[in-house]
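Summary of Year 1 activities. Much of the first year was spent building the evaluation harness for sequence design. The harness presents a backbone, in tokenized form, and records the residue chosen at every position. We chose the following record to illustrate the format because it has been used consistently in internal testing since the harness was completed.
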């Protein structure tokens, strides 16, 4: 594996951390709170059933295989990314942009 190239500041920080010059301020209570939040974030406690076309399912399964994950996990990831705002509908954005250009 190749090493990442670090700037001088990044290298100095890394060296200081590895030399033990920094000490964690994480309390036991805060650690427990963060563990609880993380556990709730990834807990999958609801089931849904949807109908999609065979073509779409095949495409999803293919993309999931490329990622090396089960297709159900891939679909869940897509939904989560869309809801959290890190996945956007590019075709919708294009339609909005073209509408703005037409109005100008």
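For this record, the design step produced the sequence shown next.
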């Amino acid at each position: 594996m190749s090493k990442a190239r670090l700037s001088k500041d990044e290298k100095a920080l890394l060296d200081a951390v590895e030399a033990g010059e920094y000490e964690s301020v994480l309390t036991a209570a805060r650690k427990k709170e963060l563990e609880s939040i993380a556990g709730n974030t990834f807990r999958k406690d609801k089931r849904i059933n949807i109908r999609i076309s065979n073509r779409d399912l095949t495409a999803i399964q293919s993309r999931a295989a490329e990622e090396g994950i089960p297709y159900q996990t891939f679909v869940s990831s897509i939904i989560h990314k869309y809801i959290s705002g890190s996945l956007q509908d590019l075709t919708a954005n294009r339609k909005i942009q073209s509408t703005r250009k037409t109005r100008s």
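The CA atoms of residues 31 and 37 lie 10 Å apart. Quantitative recovery figures across the full test set are reported in Table 2.
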